Amino acid sequence: MRVRFPVYRTLPIILLLIFLPSIVHSQETTPISGYSSQAGLNPASPGQTVRLVFIHHSTGQNWLADDNGGLGKVLSDNKYFVSDTNYGWGPASIGDHTDIGDWWSWFRGPDSATYLASLYASAEQTSSYSRLPIPPAGENEIVMFKSCFPNSALQGNPGDPPPPIENNPLRAEGSGSDHHTVANAKGIYIDLLDYFKTRQDKLFVVVSAPPLSDPTYADNARIFNVWLVNDWLLEYPFRNVAVFDFYNVLTTNGGTPDINDLDGVSGNHHRWLQGSIQYATDGDDDMSANILEYPSGDDHPTRAGNLKATGEFVTLLNVFYNNWKDGGVSLIADGDMDGKDGVTIADALLALRTAVELHTANATELSRGDCAPLVNSKPQPDSLIDIRDALLILRKVVKLIDW
């Protein structure tokens, strides 16, 4: 039953909230140390073995290897049965093609049904790593896919708008193409969502391409990967897509390429920390903040870098899986606290009642109503609903702001 509030009691509050520009200004410009906290997320490993397939090339092979990144073993320890693809895998050797433009071929192109049927059924192991001995029945539930480091050489103006997919020249093109730009890469990923939303029985995990040592396009790579994590899924209403910023994790070390900062207080991270997801991208204080800090003689990350990635990724994967599979909280702070009829005055009043402790928000209400502060016009939740959240929701209702 929805509580009705007399207009004479709510109107002064509404007017006060609408006309507090100083609060709005502080919300939109003040970052919160890279945290995106959500009550109710669960970092525990799955209750039963889950099938996972990882599309990769040499960097992924090193990451999986027991004597390098150890990802395969740690995934197994967390109840994931891991299969993988590499060069030469699959129909028409589609495994050769893992650049950003190639994801259109895998998931949207004319032969995608053939490729994906093989991928979902595959129990192949193309690299050397420890894994569980027997796969569970059924198809792979989780699809991880990663492009290799040449894909971080994204050209173009990062502010250019993504083209519609029918006009996107990066479709089925490699990273060496002149069309390998930030805008075109965004267009590829935006189009993938039209397929992902049709497969709610799968969890798709994008692993960003690792950084390059060459700084030429490093700033573009940073902009693109922050977009993937913070913006790409903002309007996607489902929970079956997630992003791990492998790139970001590899842009700070513990002093040398052979020492990582896995448990460091500072540095760049994408991890589960103190009950929330930390996405810290401003922890590098040297002159080249957006390049690979784990070079191994080329741009394959060192073992130390891969171990850091493993240490940060697997618990996040558990969070992604549980959020998808077990009906976890929404990751989208859209302001629709009650989940009814879109964002309405009832949501603003519910946020206000929560802020003044007349109502205790449940996990779903918290995740949808915890919108403040806004950073670059995007929500950066801080694990509580206060007057700033009520203000943002109300201003969205009266169309003074949107996100």
Quick gist of this model?
The protein has 403 residues and is α/β, with parallel strands linked by helices. The chain has 13 helices and 10 strands. It is 33% helix and 10% strand.
At the first level of CATH, the class of the largest domain is Alpha Beta
State the helix count.
13
Tell me the total number of β-strands: 10
Cα-based radius of gyration, to the nearest Å? 22 Å
Classify the fold: give the CATH topology of the largest domain.
Rossmann fold
**CATH architectural label of the largest domain:** 3-Layer(aba) Sandwich
Measured by DSSP, the beta-strand proportion falls in 5-15%
Largest sheet: 5 strands, parallel
The helix/strand order is HHEEHHEHHEHEHEHEEHHHEEH
Termini gap: 29 Å
Oligomer: single chain
Structural class: alpha/beta
The side-by-side strand order for the widest beta sheet comes to 3-2-4-5-6
Query: In terms of per-residue confidence, which ranges show pLDDT below 50 for 5 or more consecutive residues?
Result: 1-5, 21-37
Overall geometry: globular
Number of domains: 2
Helix content: 25-40%
